[in-house]
Amino acid sequence: MATDTSSPASAPATETGYQQPTVDVGSLLELLDGRYRDVRELVRTNLVTYDAVLEDAEQMPTDDFRDRVRDLVVEMAATGQTGMGFPSEYGGGGDIGASVAAFETLAFGDLSVLVKVGVQFGLFGGAILQLGTRRHHDAYLRDLISGRTMGCFAMTEVGHGSNVQALGTVATYDAETAEFVLTTTTPEARKDWIGNAARHAELGAVFAQLEVGGERHGVHCFVVPLRRDGDVLPGITIEDDGLKMGLNGVDNGRITFDGVRVPRENLLNRFADVTEDGVYESSIENPNRRFFTMLGTLVQGRVCVGGAGINAAKVALAIAVRYADRRRQFEATNPPEEDLLLDYGQHQRRLLPLLARTYALHFAQEVVADELHQVFSGLEAGEESRRRLESRAAGTKALGTWHATRTIQECREACGGQGYRAANRFAALKADTDVFTTFEGDNTVLLQLVAKGLLTDYAGEFEDMDQFGTVRFVAGLAVETVIEKTAVHKLIERVRDVLPGGDEWDQEAGLLDPDYQRMMFRFREEHMLAGVARRLKRGIDQGMNAGEVFSRVQDHVIAAANAHVERLVLDAFLDKLAGLPDGDQKVALSLLSDLFALSTIEADRAWWIEHGRLSVTRSKAISREVNGLCRKVRPLAVDLVDAFGVPREMLRSPELLG
Amino acid sequence: MATDTSSPASAPATETGYQQPTVDVGSLLELLDGRYRDVRELVRTNLVTYDAVLEDAEQMPTDDFRDRVRDLVVEMAATGQTGMGFPSEYGGGGDIGASVAAFETLAFGDLSVLVKVGVQFGLFGGAILQLGTRRHHDAYLRDLISGRTMGCFAMTEVGHGSNVQALGTVATYDAETAEFVLTTTTPEARKDWIGNAARHAELGAVFAQLEVGGERHGVHCFVVPLRRDGDVLPGITIEDDGLKMGLNGVDNGRITFDGVRVPRENLLNRFADVTEDGVYESSIENPNRRFFTMLGTLVQGRVCVGGAGINAAKVALAIAVRYADRRRQFEATNPPEEDLLLDYGQHQRRLLPLLARTYALHFAQEVVADELHQVFSGLEAGEESRRRLESRAAGTKALGTWHATRTIQECREACGGQGYRAANRFAALKADTDVFTTFEGDNTVLLQLVAKGLLTDYAGEFEDMDQFGTVRFVAGLAVETVIEKTAVHKLIERVRDVLPGGDEWDQEAGLLDPDYQRMMFRFREEHMLAGVARRLKRGIDQGMNAGEVFSRVQDHVIAAANAHVERLVLDAFLDKLAGLPDGDQKVALSLLSDLFALSTIEADRAWWIEHGRLSVTRSKAISREVNGLCRKVRPLAVDLVDAFGVPREMLRSPELLG
């Protein structure tokens, strides 16, 4: 190819010894599959077995398709694919990491199936497992793991999507009958968007404000029977959310409770209980902390959605890159033969940095999935590990799902009009993944959570901060709390310390030096955080309304969190590389990590220039280097997407891929 | 509202005399409607009359919905809405500007209806009108204007989307029978994505390589009967393109011709003809120029799609802004009451610069629609006006449709999970507008066209440059041609001249000074163009393969075109403002033009810094000013979206808007 043999764009010094590598697809796939290769292989086999579901999604009437997806989920459950995270004594696989790997891989296929699996086993099953105790496990786990009992996770309400602590559904304890009475107190308190509710769920894990003897104890979770033999039970009203942009194989619904009674034992009582005669008891005294401890056990959902987003992006890239390597348009290099799209510089610019970022996010996801496994398998204990996990899960989910939205759109446009056909996957990918950015935590809210964790982490004070939710962070009171707990001057010292060589270091380091890249990312993160802290503090000190201070600093807060997560992503990629033996694979992946690091710096280069860490000359050199890296990655691009291991059947796209 | 009364963010000097304006929605709507207020009013009335089609789109089986859309288009035709651009002697309205205004306004509603109208009256009707002569007008116009005869526009082929000059369908003249014989020569030459083809079209305007006596004369257009009484005619094979991401009310299809014969008179012969005994004649000698002259007459389609994209963005903004002004989430300012989403700084940042850009694009669209009207009504003649129009149409279409994609996505995310319901419009808006970025000219290809026009324009040499298409620009040969014709040194002089005050000017001008903003935009445009020209020339001079030179400079080329079009957009906005009387409306629109200008500079601020036109201090001041402008626009935001005049029925969204 004409562009492959071109001389490198960057300065000769950085090029010493560079030889264009080749990629062994099989060995790279093995690396990406990681320790759960067998699990991923099982899911890929299942995806191919049930590949007809991709067409069913287009052709079946909604209710038929919903039933089809349910049946398919139950069939997959029988292969062990969906129960890997549950204890083996109930028929599960006893391996949390395996369950994440299985879920991520499932994202190569129809995403209604994925979300139905997430609802049944992740959300509903997760609530029973994590918030319940032995009696609940004995009663429900075996049947939910097999799919014999379908359930739903009824948290979100019309009035409260993100602010879960303010839910309006109330569960009042009736000591006379030893029952809880669940009531939807206002139209705003109606449960909404509950997956599995409109058609299939027999049970619900329902979140409500617990009231005992006239006293409120905050949000707790109750097992509530919703249907028997397909009929909705008395006191419960279920409406269908109707047609959605995508994911129409999932039956989302709205639930209203009108004095619905459940036995006292239906409170999922791992963290709190009510005695028969109506005394509230909890091992966690502080209500805020209790709430966030409960929510924190459900972090797996976020880890899974982030991974699913990244894998959906892989499907889009696999199609667009392969298409660009066979589609010719306009004669440029050797008329009259037209050139391949992927030989055009602009086309490389569109696709290859996204390819690099996908690899980077893949390795970052590997880290967070591993942390989840460590923490939830009890291999790593302690409050701090949990907080770190929750923050990392929130950040990776936000960046991973935004990346999916952006990548799928870019890939679709890069395939021209043909990308518009439903059979070419982009229609489903776009429509189905769209909600990933706002469900399991709205991305902007999640990044605020990350930022807040950082501000408090850095001050070294952990107690009683509501890490998982986000309520207090945006609440006026909490702005002050955060500020008090954050030693601003410490942050600023850290910013100075982080660049050991002083101001001269960036003059000497090569652009492709991983230490240079790390330091650039680290500097941005620390400097932004210090700035946020300073601005928050100044506003409060000046007597401004805390809410207004927050509103003004909010974009800065989110930028700081983004900088932090991008640094984690780079670290994950570089750490992975450091562990690889020398050879072509390492060289190829280094091209991608350089492309990820430099295209990320390029995109935000104004910031580094404004903060004295990037000269104009060097900034321009980075843009040239990004172009140069694109040209080097170009001949590897098809192998690099093949190594994602997306089964050919999942790509469809007969016109695009031939 | 807490944030409304806050003190302005910018320096006091720029704030002298500023008073927060109010917006008179009725009077602003009148301004936006412009000279075609009555036309837009008629379309709005029709949209409301047929508002049930929005639900039909979700509920009807595909073929039923296609028929429904066809019927609706015919009914709308009876109101005069769709025929405004055709000569009155055939039942049209005789006003090209009116037809654009009608089309743009139709984009508030179901977009299958819009595209069906575009296919029938814009593409098919436009081909008959612009490429045909009296005999074709007499034969077809009356029936196509009324919708009695449905037609299609068969240009695109499987193998050639953007590179139209290389089409593979051949029309051979048979002098013995005085007929053209149309043949699909290869599988790649099959017509594809032809709207109206799968089900409704009786006639096609078919583009094919004309061959007379063994000699090729390039692409010409022929009227070809496709169906009679609903049956496809012999020699013609039509396949259905099947389900698409969106626009499923339009019956796209694939057409193959196997020796299909049409009379000699069916050649649309405005620019070229074949005599009965087989002599090719044309008033335009140069085949390239002839081709692009023919294509150039079809520019109206691009103008219309750009306007439709901008108006689709208005629908999304109207929903998201109103929702953000009533949805509360988290208590920040005055606990325990939760705050309105639109009072959060980040939410303002998400939506309000997009609102400002929508206004800017609206006025830019007004300019290009007016130019179209002038040129095609013969009010303004000459090659130069046509070229300017074509370039402006290409640029506005690219920026307008990308803006639609981005705005709809951001608005959807800003509405959280509720934005995912089909009834809330975002599903249809996303799916239906998606293809706008790649049809009627792929946006990246269009921007290359714009850049090429600029390079040649600036050199002052116009002859024989294929302005409309894009083939030659990416072709190696043409790179050299462009370079030869472009006096690089002239460009560089212009860059120096464009900033009359020398290097000091930006130190003194206020950020809100329109002259400052104009000069910034202008400088970027000129400097980027000069850079492109220099890089192209250097590559060629160094003996590099022309295609490779182009590939390397391509992102720079596209950035230059983007800079040019953004400058045109700013000019359009500022020119509009200059013509307004002093008062609140002008003040309010000035906030938007400032927000557009400064957020555009902010987004690309690295470039200006790198090129010595923006100091770091000033760059940070711009970011602060953008935040300050967002706060000033915030209390006007609902009125500003109301003034778009999107009928309430077109917004739907019962949950979001109450």
TrEMBL record, chains A, B:
Acyl-CoA dehydrogenase/oxidase N-terminal domain segment(s): 39-147
InterPro entries in the record: ACOX_C_alpha1, Acyl-CoA_Oxase/DH_mid-dom, Acyl-CoA_Oxase/DH_mid-dom_sf, Acyl-CoA_oxidase, Acyl-CoA_oxidase_C, AcylCo_DH-like_C, AcylCoA_DH/ox_N, AcylCoA_DH/ox_N_sf
Domain spans labelled Acyl-CoA oxidase C-terminal: 518-654
Ranges for domain Acyl-CoA oxidase/dehydrogenase middle: 152-260
Keyword Oxidoreductase attached: yes
Cofactor: FAD
Keyword Plastid: no
Taxonomic superkingdom: Bacteria
Keywords: FAD, Flavoprotein, Oxidoreductase
Acyl-CoA oxidase C-alpha1 domain: residues covered: 296-455
Similarity annotation: Belongs to the acyl-CoA oxidase family.
Record protein name field: Acyl-CoA dehydrogenase
